[in-house]
């Protein structure tokens, strides 16, 4: 069975020479959640817009469920649902009519039972006869998702779906995404929120300056690239790191009461035993020792930073 989404060497250039996408290749299997992380201008929205047929690629190919998005546009597009960043809804229309109209745009036969199921899943059924203008910002975002799901697509793009919503609504949205996955919907999520990717994604992709720097299983990515930190908490503050400890590249923090040591979990030796011995030999009195695993945010920042340096 082909991947639900198969992108090969996708490029998008503009007349002024700007390259928004630089040979992006990506395969996504049915039923997974993949999060695309990247700063503003990285190419996330351009990538989604190209797959959805809103933007035309300069070169490369895209297939959705085996259908080429150019040759078999209607078949490919019918498999895609898109939730854009902007809330662009008719304010005086009722929720149910808004969702019903979207289903009709894809030529799907009327099916109020299907729409009821979608609205109930998104906690919108009780609001079905409300005008859009009467809804909160979070509810309007749910309507956008309902519109995108109205024609029962198998691939759903969520472009910054929780931008501008509070933490509680964001977590509600995560639960919605998990529910959609349980129904067999494949989800591609773009986000600025690292915790969003960490909470719900199966795989994480990092995109910067139009290039896909990596796509990897979330857990293996953190295990492969994550580092641990050892915080050596001292009884008394230091004016500076003792010369005898300079070789460890320690960082002073917590009002000069903590020495932070970073080490690679994949290394044959961590150097911790020798470090603690040298700390004691330097006459420092330990109060506590704490280890911390680096987060996905640390990894993301490091990758994008390395990419920027490489471009200079």
UniProtKB/TrEMBL annotation:
Keyword terms: ATP-binding, Nucleotide-binding, Transport
Ranges for domain ABC transporter: 5-234
GO molecular function: ATP binding; ATP hydrolysis activity
Alphabetized Pfam families for the sequence: ABC_tran
Statement: the UniProt record of this protein carries the keyword ATP-binding: yes
Coiled-coil residue spans: none
Keyword DNA repair: no
Protein name, as recorded: ABC transporter ATP-binding protein
Entries under InterPro entries matching the protein: AAA+_ATPase (IPR003593), ABC_transporter-like_ATP-bd (IPR003439), ABC_transporter-like_CS (IPR017871), ABC_transporter_ATP-binding (IPR050763)
PANTHER family registered for this protein in UniProt: ABC TRANSPORTER ATP-BINDING PROTEIN
SMART domains: AAA
């Amino acid at each position: 069975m082909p991947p639900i989404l198969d992108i090969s060497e996708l490029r998008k250039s503009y007349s002024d020479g700007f390259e928004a996408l630089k040979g992006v290749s990506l395969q996504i299997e049915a039923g997974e959640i993949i999060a695309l992380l990247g700063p503003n201008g990285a190419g996330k929205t351009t990538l989604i817009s190209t797959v959805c047929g809103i933007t035309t690629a300069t070169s490369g190919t895209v297939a959705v469920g085996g259908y080429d998005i150019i040759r078999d546009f209607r078949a490919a597009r019918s498999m895609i649902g898109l939730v854009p960043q902007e809330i662009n809804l008719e304010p005086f229309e009722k929720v149910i009519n808004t969702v019903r109209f979207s289903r009709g745009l894809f030529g799907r036969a009327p099916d109020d039972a299907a729409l009821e199921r979608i609205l109930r899943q998104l906690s919108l059924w009780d609001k079905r006869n409300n005008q859009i203008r009467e809804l909160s910002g979070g509810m309007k975002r749910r309507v956008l998702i309902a519109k995108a799901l109205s024609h029962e697509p198998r691939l759903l793009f969520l472009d910054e779906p929780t931008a501008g919503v509070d933490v509680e609504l964001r977590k509600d949205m995560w639960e919605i995404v998990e529910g959609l996955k349980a129904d067999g919907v494949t989800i591609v999520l773009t986000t600025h929120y690292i915790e969003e990717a960490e909470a719900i994604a199966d795989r994480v992709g990092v995109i910067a300056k139009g290039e896909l720097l990596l796509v990897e299983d979330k857990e293996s990515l953190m295990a492969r690239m994550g580092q641990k930190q050892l915080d050596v908490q001292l009884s008394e503050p230091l004016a500076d790191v003792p010369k005898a400890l300079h070789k460890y590249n320690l960082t002073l923090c917590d009002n000069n009461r903590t020495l932070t040591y970073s080490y690679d979990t994949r290394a044959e030796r961590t150097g911790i035993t020798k470090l603690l011995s040298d700390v004691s030999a330097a006459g420092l009195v330990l109060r506590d020792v704490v280890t911390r695993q680096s987060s996905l945010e640390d990894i993301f920042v490091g990758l994008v930073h390395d990419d920027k340096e490489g471009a200079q």
